[in-house]
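Q: How would the structure tokens look for this protein?
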Amino acid sequence: MRHILSLLLCLITLTALSQQRPLNSMYMLDPLLINPAYAGNHVQFSATGIHRNQWVNFPGSPQTSTFSMHSGFWGSRVGIGLILSHETIGVHEDVGLFGQYSYKIFSDAGVLSMGVSAGFNNLRSDFSSLRLIDLNDPNLAGQRSKFNPNFGAGVYWSGVNGLFLGFSAPYLINNKIVDIEGIPSIATQKRNYYLSATKVFQYSPNVTLYPSFLLRMQEGAPITFDLNFNMSFYKVVGLGFSYRNQDAILFLLQLKVLENLHIGYAYDFTLSEIRQYSEGTHEIMFNYRVKLGRIHKGIECPSYY
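A: Here is the predicted structure in token form.
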């Protein structure tokens, strides 16, 4: 019971002061999750699956799974993508489906991509599974479902000098979280803004460095950031670590198993007080890429790293 109360307190804090939307630790390997303008940047067809088990051994802890796919079309000038997500936390289940479209402008200095996304989240809450002290509380009665359409936009710059910049707002509509007749509520989903930057350095013929950062801004919440440092060896093995302020230290491992198949693993060492009850966070990823016949014939595809 103590763990459940702790989790509820964390959720209240999450809603009031921190990020409402889930964020994977390996978003840098699938930027489509935070920026629709990234659609088609791999040129070839790319499918990525990520599963995140947050706060291991914590009852009711978040479990997040995402599956994304995108590809370039018409000489990679247009990108089309799709994201399917599923998250459970306590008695809540959230299923999302979003489509992405991007258009790219090519120049001698790099490629500017502009993207939009549209879709929905369906939040379902099963309060009947709770052991309640007050059985007459109307806020915690039965099952409820809330359908929330949304849309977003973003821009992404890929420079020929190895500099990558992105800015996005994946969810622009402030949907109500609670919508029960006769019960007033001001709880809404707040807009999120992401500012990202990555610089690629060729340290040696077989070693590449990828320092990056991500700035997260949410209306009514403090600004948070990630500082990331990744490196790859022979473009086969990747190692990295990240610092997420006031939250965790992350360790990442990437491996090129086959020419078209890559896998990844991340471990979050929690810095907040939740570490007293949890053994950290685990995250696994796979990515598969392949050229699609005539669509990508004769087009150069970027390296995985």
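The two ends are 45 Å apart (CA to CA).

Confidence is low (pLDDT under 50) at residues 1-19.

Upvote if useful.
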